[in-house]
Amino acid sequence: MKIIVTGGAGFIGSHTVVELIDCGYDPVIIDDFRNSEKFILKQIEGITSKPIKHYEIDCGNVKEMKRVFKEENPDGIIHFAADKAVNESVNNPLKYYENNVSNLINLIKVIEEYDIKSFVFSSSCTVYGEPDSIPVKESTPTKAAFSPYGETKQMGEKILLDYFKNKPTCNLSLLRYFNPIGAHRTGEIGELPIGVPNNLVPFIMQTASGKRNVLTVFGNDYDTPDGYCIRDYIHVVDLAVAHVLTLKHGVEQVHQPLVLNVGTGKGHSVLEVIRTFEEQTGEKVNFQIGERRAGDVPSIYADNALITSVLGWKPKYNLGDALLHAWKWEQRIQQLMN
Ligand code: WQD
Question: How many DSSP H helices and E strands does the chain contain?
């Protein structure tokens, strides 16, 4: 069964492509490599021993996208292609509205004439804004997003829900991720931030490996038990498996639009992440406390009961596993990039 994976060379996309192949699907990657590296395709082939078909296309290029869909006639789509740095979106909102919203609309226009059975959309816990209560359930009201990134995910969900109302033959699933971290257990694929990392875990890795001098922690005066922000850090392979199970559910049976939290159900503070990394690896993280960062919410983590009951999905890895795998990948990158 052929599955189009937009952004398939990216962090979550590449791990999902590996899991799709392991489950017998035939993924085809569409990626313009603005946020990913081409050599990752070879790495995926090395892990799966399968050739990977890919098209180097911007999802905004409707003509080219139509050519690919005509050629591939896929049964399902997993749409990852988007920008995803909360703080970057505050400084460059138009980039986010163009890539995350107008390119989604372009994609929908392309698939109109195809019989897509399952459409899986990469959404985000940022749609909840600053929740009144945690853990958040799918029924927790979404509030004003704290960043343009969160706005684009709220809009994406609304656009898709409205559009697929009149398309009962295609099963829509919106996956609200929490904080994806870690790397493949082989250490052969992982997160590849372009330039200075926006996210905490890659910044920790680059500080520990000496690429960065110091990690700045954006505030420790929040109303949380230790004053540091709390997030739900989910292993990227657990997240990838959730995508495959969701896609499978959509291609095998007709269902109402699904909105699912994909998180571990546990919250960890920034300090706990740093200390867990140090305990797991014996490495030291040089960090300093800085000002709060625009767009950050103090605390959010998932109630993941729904995805467990609908798909039988449960996270396999814990925070320590994810940080160890991320560290193994950080050391591998040196060899691959030289
Ligand atoms: C986590 C914590 C920072 C960097 C991410 C993704 C977003 C979405 C949700 C999927 C915060 C602190 C960070 C640093 C720091 N996932 N931090 N110093 O902002 O929760 O968003 O998860 O859609 O796509 O970006 O993740 O890792 O940037 O921040 O102190 O150098 O780490 O303040 O409290 P965030 P993050």
Answer: 12, 13
Q: Is the dihedral of CA 88, 93, 99, 105 positive or negative?
A: positive
For ligand 1, atom 34: residue with the closest CA: 229
Separation of 337 CA from ligand 1 center, angstroms? Answer: 25
CB distance 335 to 190 below 8 Å: no
| Dist. CA 101 → ligand 1 center (Å) | 21
Q: What is the model's pLDDT at position 335?
A: 84
Judged by phi (left if over 0) then psi (alpha if -120 to 50, else beta), residue 235 lies in beta
**pTM across the whole model:** 0.95
Q: Which positions are catalytic?
A: 149
Residues 6+ apart with CB under 8 A from 335: none
Q: Measuring from each residue's beta carbon to the nearest atom of ligand 1, which residues come in under 6 Å?
A: 84-86, 124-126, 177, 179, 198-200, 203, 215-218, 229, 231, 270, 293, 296
* pLDDT range class, residue 143, cuts 50, 70, 90: confident
Residue-wise pLDDT for 282-334, tens only, equals 999 999 999 999 878 999 999 999 999 999 999 999 999 999 999 999 999 98
Do residues 67 and 30 make contact, with C-beta atoms less than 8 angstroms apart? Answer: no
